[in-house]
Task: structure prediction
Amino acid sequence: MSDRAESNIPPQATPLPPELEARIAAFESAAPASDFDSASWFWMIVLGVAIPLVLLAAGWWA
Amino acid sequence: MTTHANPQADESAWPLLPEERTWGAARLTLTLATAAAATWCYLIGESVGSYLGFIKGGLALGAGCMIGMVLVLLAAGPTCVRFGIDSIAATKPQFGSRGWVVPAALQTVSIIGWNSLLIIFFAKSAVQLSVALGILDLGWRNAALVPVLTVIACAIIFAALRRGATGVSMVSNILVAHVFIGLWMLYLLVSRRWPELVAAHPANASPNHLWNYTTGIELGIGATLSWWPYIGAMIRMAPNGRTIVLPVMLGMAAPVPLLSLIGLAGSLVLKSSDPTEWLRIVGGPAYAIVSLTFVTAANFGTTTAGIYASAIGLRNFATLQKCTWTALLLITIAPVALVGIFIPELFFAKFGNFLALIGVAFAPLCGIQIVDYFVLRRGCIDIRAIYVDAPERPYYFWRGINPAAMIALAAGCFTYVAFLNPLSYESTTLYPYMTASLPSATAAALVYFLSSLLVIRAGRGGYLKR
Result:
């Protein structure tokens, strides 16, 4: 079977438990959930990049 | 189809609905801090103290922990927090709807292995505490109490975790005080032995100063990368990405280097990383009792979080999905209890090296997840495909396995061992300039990216659906 033909098989070949199905449907019908906002990125850069660089420089010259 | 918040949802590996994710930043910080602070902190400190002095060692370790933690956060964080799923479910877009058993095996062996070690530490500390309090006499019979205390500890953890993630949070609320006891112990050592501490020379320092410094950083990165198996089960209880960043970076990454300074200071000044031993030297028996209380509480909190994360990870196996939460907890705790009852000393002596080898896999795992989510998929995750193992679903790849992830994982592990042997600490000439975890994650990410181009060309993996 070709790749294209495989992808034409309708979904839901394996039935899911009703509660799991409902949870997935809830995510699919809602607006896509976001991961990190700009404030999150700011703190990740500060705490995961900038501060480690400062600590590394301070430690090397200590 | 409508859905309602299910109070038992945190006992499954299914996605948590936004209304079920009720942990705010403070609750998550407390839970993560309690989980992070354990006996391994002063073992990490002792390792760093072999190569670096107090100030250099503390700074290198602190930087390494923050770098490692941000990698874990970028790898597991986005998918876990968007859909309320655990670390293992979040690997299905990369490893496939069946290939995820590889990270699951890594998680299970790592968590159960570490939990067994910590619970044995806990039992030994409790015996020492009882002797220090005069409840028990010194004697050979005390060794026989370790298995008994292991079973009691497992029973308490089981009882706490009957309430799911709430049980983890409840234990954390009680035990978080030990983090402050740890900081007090550090203050005590630093304030009383500062001149000796600054003058102390590390016992096994290499003549190559850069190698020593890089090893301090590497130990920090490695320590926090090993939080990958735990983190998903915790952060999925939070409602969004903004809520998790500061708790993870400050609650989980910061306590590890801070409490590791206890082991670092102890190993440099008193040639012992065990705070129980050196607090008795510094402050007498009363301080030793405080220290033993710290060790007992610390390991208990971490093991509770670990058993919970491991149980949620095991839920991803179809055969365990229908299992009751009680039965699943028993399945997860049983290996820990059996090790503590039958082979505590043997496990203590032999399993540490195996855990060091397992830890090598987490850096490439992070590299693979980061490049998959941010570069290849640009954040486009098919939540249905995570739970449906069928050929028509994008994460089925080939027979449920994505060869690109397997090859990349192997390449990353090989790169790590080529840069630094985690057992002998033999290293390549490039290691002092690059660490071992960072090239390992980069190599895995690069191999994954390149091999995924072939996967995309074959029309697999759901990369073209954007």
Q: What stands out?
A: The mean pLDDT of chain B is 87. Chain B touches chain A through 55 residues (CB under 8 Å). The two ends of chain B are 25 Å apart (CA to CA). The domain at 26-355 of chain B is CATH 1.10.4160.10 (Hydantoin permease).
